[in-house]
Amino acid sequence: MFNVKILGCGSALPTSHHLPSAQVVEVRGKLLLLDCGEGVQLQLRHQHLNLMRIGHVFITHAHGDHCFGLPGLISTFSLLGRKTPLHVFAPATLQPFFDCIIDSFCVGMQYEVTFTPVDPERCEVVCETSSFRVSSLPLRHRVPCCGYLIEEQPSLPHIRPEMIAEYDIPHWAINNIKAGADWTAANGEVISHERLTRPAEPPCRYAYCTDTMPNPDLPAWIEGVDLLYHEATYAEADASKATLVGHSTATQAAEIARAAYVRRLLIGHFSARYDDETPLLHEAQAIFPATELADEGLEVTLRV
Amino acid sequence: MFNVKILGCGSALPTSHHLPSAQVVEVRGKLLLLDCGEGVQLQLRHQHLNLMRIGHVFITHAHGDHCFGLPGLISTFSLLGRKTPLHVFAPATLQPFFDCIIDSFCVGMQYEVTFTPVDPERCEVVCETSSFRVSSLPLRHRVPCCGYLIEEQPSLPHIRPEMIAEYDIPHWAINNIKAGADWTAANGEVISHERLTRPAEPPCRYAYCTDTMPNPDLPAWIEGVDLLYHEATYAEADASKATLVGHSTATQAAEIARAAYVRRLLIGHFSARYDDETPLLHEAQAIFPATELADEGLEVTLRV
To answer: What is the mean pLDDT of chain B?
Structure first.
């Protein structure tokens, strides 16, 4: 299971049709929260997601529309009696706000919240578990900012059922073979584990890139990802405004997607100036056809 | 015009049917925000209220469900190009959070935001303009907490139209008479301003009291108010829980209303444990019949 759910895809100015940035990525039963705009805990409820399954929060930068939901989320976890730690990752510029939340509102809290500063200048692994690996992706915005590459950990290969029958392999040996052990048959013949298995599906990879001007270094870091979320705050007609405030146009997002050979592109972080983002979609699709518009509640399943 | 609009009347744990605490009071065209729970800026939009008309924010205490909407509101005002100052009043325990918002997210902001600490131990005027006067009301909660009494400033008396005709009073003299000047008629007769006018309606008074255990001192401070909002987090059956966490039951709220001879009572700050607050309403009405349940979007007009 690798699933991306959009909780908010508006930009800084709230509108009646979009909420500030937040997404949930589900990887093998774990929930990762990407950005944490105001109202995220309510959105999680509306989308019928179990808040308590969130173990990790990755915040791109210290602008309010990406982090003002954090104090409410941390407090609500405490009210719900959470015991397991919550791990927050963000550029160090967010730390004063984080510390203030902890000092002002979390005295006597029964669970641990950690803050790990992410270097927004480096592309490196910032968090790794047995289920997923998250790396930072340097972006170009008005303040220190990084995207995140979320990768499923590789799966063990599948055993070939016909080989089990042919070599009479007992159940207890299967996990060893998947992990790389060869099998010695009753007649002494050694059968290599490669013959007994077929490779697992390649790990799902998702790149979350907001807020940023087009970063020419980005395609090399995210090449071939299954899905790229790239901000497209503006239409190309507003390109000079986009550059001025450190954002991208739909055209620029599509150019990044094309240069990175990604499979699918999701554009979001829409400016409040657009009542309808269809022109942005068409603009991007002209360059990268496999583009979709983000929307609150949209779910993209990369693996069932 | 004196109008109270409920934006949120749930308690700390968010639910699908209630938002955290926030209300807007409109007095003579000015908007006052009472408490500022997460998502308040979105609620203001949903309720078609013009954010920019808010000049004053009064926060009862430094619990998240009463103040986590403040960073988003301050930031959005800046994005909207606000130039007029915003005045925030709250117990001093909120100041570190306020300072952190200003330091972390408001660098270069084009409008002024002031913070005035309110002494939650004293009943005193904390803010006065030509339109309204706001006083603090000491409450009894787990942390320093105060309610607010919002009073319209007295209006000038009305001129009696029949007197204008009888004494041939010119238009230019009317405001002087309203303000207390007597009138000397053509024949030299001095007519006292009391004869020429009838008193204005008494000023509207609204008391906002949350979060608190029943405070026996409260009725004396709010006697005869047109409307009392008093928290009723729990039903009387959960009275011991209420006391434990520094809250009131619906029965206790009604007892305060009765003791204070208020005109109407609005109960709110409902615990997430109740799917339906009708039993709380009936409980309160048994003691104080003029009780209503708060609800998101409810508007109570005290003067048209």
So the answer is: 96
From B138, B167, B198, give the residue that closes a domain.
B198
The pLDDT tens digits for A99-157 are 999 999 998 899 999 999 999 999 999 999 999 999 999 999 999 999 999 999 999 99
The pLDDT value given to residue A15: 86
Shortest Cα distance from A300 to chain B (angstroms)? 24
- Cβ(A89)–Cβ(A116) under 8 Å? yes
Eight-state DSSP code of residue B249: B
Task: Domain of residue A225: give its range.
Answer: 2-155+201-303
In this predicted structure, the answer to whether residue A16 has a pLDDT above a threshold of 90 is no
What residues in chain B have per-residue pLDDT under 70? Answer: none
Q: Which residues of B are catalytic?
A: 65
Please determine, for residue A185, whether its predicted confidence score (pLDDT) is greater than 90: no
Cβ-based neighbours of B144, under 8 Å, separated by 6 or more = B61, B62, B91, B92, B93, B120, B121
Average pLDDT, chain A: 96
Residue A257 CA to residue A285 CA, distance in Å, equals: 11
Give yes or no for residue A57 having a pLDDT over 90.
yes
Contact criterion met (CB below 8 Å) for B37 and B13: no
Question: CA nearest B66 in A: which residue?
Answer: A72
Q: Do A79 and B45 touch (CB under 8 A)?
A: no
Kindly indicate the confidence band of residue A164, based on its pLDDT and cuts at 50, 70 and 90.
confident
CATH number at residue B87: 3.60.15.10
Q: Rounded distance, CA A110 to CA A130, Å?
A: 26
Q: Is there a single domain that holds both residue B187 and residue B41?
A: no
Chain centroid, CA A126 distance in Å: 13
Distance from CA of A50 to the nearest CA of B (A): 13
Q: Are residues A125 and A184 in the same domain?
A: no
Q: Collect all residues with Cβ–Cβ distance below 8 Å to A1 and sequence separation of at least 6.
A: A26, A27, A28, A29, A303, A304
Average pLDDT over residues A223-231: 98
Q: Do A42 and B45 lie within an 8 Å CB cutoff?
A: no
Distances (CA, A) of A116 to A79, A122, B257, B292: 23, 15, 50, 48
Q: What is the C-alpha separation between A280 and A270, in angstroms, rounded?
A: 9
Q: What are phi and psi of B290, to 5 degrees?
A: -80, 50
